[in-house]
Design brief:
By secondary structure, the protein is α+β, with helices and mostly antiparallel strands. It has 10 helices and 8 strands. Helix content is 47%, strand content 19%. Helix 3 crosses helix 4 and helix 7 packs across helix 9. The protein is globular.
Length: 270
C-alpha cells in the first residue's frame, strides 16, 4: 500500500510546509483558526484562538479580521469575540454529504445500535483528535451527548486507538510522534501499546474505563478505498452497566468487526 501523509493539524506539523514553494502559509494558518472552533464552544476571542493555534495574537487578529470579512466568521462587537458562520458550517455539511461511506455505513451501524441499545459511531482523524462523522443511537436513554461533528481524544479513545491500529507502521509512528507532546505521554503511550497488543490478539480494541471511568468501549479500524487509501474507525460505547467487559469481548467486539467487514464489502461494490 502506498504510504499516505497523515494530516496533523498542529503548528509544528504545518508550519511553512517544509519550505515547499507551493505551500501557502497564510492559508494554512487561516484554516488553523477555523479548526480551533469545537462543537459546543462559546464565542472565542483572539487571545483564546492564539492559545489554541499556537499562533501570535497579532497574526490571529489579522486572520480573524480577514475570515470575518469573507463571511466565514461572525464577529460580535460587544464581546469582541467570534463564532463560525453559517457559510463556514456549510462547508462541513457539504463535506459530510460527499462521504459515501456514511450512507453505506449507517444501516449497518444502526442495526448494531438497536441490538446493543447503545451508541455506534464512525469517525475520521482531525489532527490529533477524532471527529464523529456518523452516529447511531440504540434504545437506551443513557447516552454521552456526543454527536456528529464532536471531537474526542485520538490518544485515549477506542475510536482513536482503532484508527491507529488501521495505519501502517510508518504512518503510526508519524502520528505517535505528534501525540508525544501531550502531558502524561509515557502513561498514554503505554495504554496505546497495551490496546494495540489486544487488537492484534482479538481483532478489535477494548477500553474498560480508560477514556471515562464509567464508559466501556470497543473499536475497529475501517480501511476502504482503492488500495486501502482511506482510514476511518468505528466504535461501540456506552455505560459500563450496559456493556460489561465480557459482553464486549464475547459479543459486541466481534459484531463490530462484522459491521466493518460489511461496510468494506459494500464500498468495494460501488
Amino acid at each position: 500500500m502506498r504510504r499516505r501523509e497523515i494530516a496533523l493539524a498542529t503548528p509544528e506539523a504545518e508550519g511553512d510546509g517544509g519550505r515547499d514553494p507551493q505551500f501557502v502559509t497564510a492559508l494554512a494558518r487561516g484554516l488553523d483558526v477555523l479548526r480551533a472552533f469545537r462543537r459546543g464552544d462559546p464565542p472565542l476571542g483572539n487571545q483564546e484562538l492564539a492559545q489554541r493555534t499556537g499562533l501570535p495574537k497579532a497574526t490571529v487578529s489579522r486572520l480573524t479580521y480577514t475570515l470575518s470579512s469573507l463571511g466565514f466568521l461572525t464577529y460580535a462587537p460587544v464581546t469582541a469575540k467570534y463564532t463560525l458562520s453559517i457559510k463556514a458550517l456549510a462547508l462541513g455539511f457539504t463535506a459530510l454529504g460527499s462521504m459515501s461511506v456514511r450512507d453505506v455505513a449507517r444501516p449497518h451501524m444502526q442495526a448494531l445500535a438497536n441490538e446493543t441499545g447503545v451508541s455506534v459511531a464512525l469517525g475520521a482523524q482531525d489532527g490529533t483528535s477524532m471527529v464523529y462523522i456518523e452516529h447511531c443511537r440504540g434504545a437506551s436513554p443513557l447516552h454521552m451527548g456526543i454527536e456528529v461533528g464532536s471531537h474526542i481524544s485520538l490518544a485515549r479513545s477506542a475510536m482513536g486507538r482503532a484508527f491507529l491500529a488501521g495505519l501502517d507502521l510508518a504512518e503510526r509512528a508519524q502520528l505517535m510522534e505528534a501525540l508525544s507532546h501531550r502531558d502524561n505521554w509515557a502513561e498514554i503511550r503505554q495504554g496505546i501499546e497495551d490496546t494495540l497488543a489486544g487488537y492484534a490478539e482479538r481483532g478489535f480494541v477494548l477500553l474498560i474505563g480508560d477514556w471515562r471511568q464509567e464508559i466501556n468501549a470497543v473499536g475497529v479500524p475501517l480501511v476502504v478505498g482503492s488500495g486501502g487509501s482511506l482510514t476511518f474507525a468505528l466504535n461501540c460505547c456506552g455505560p459500563a452497566v450496559l456493556l460489561s467487559r465480557d459482553d464486549l469481548i464475547d459479543r459486541v467486539g466481534p459484531r463490530l468487526m462484522a459491521v466493518a467487514d460489511a461496510i468494506r464489502n459494500a464500498m468495494c461494490m460501488e
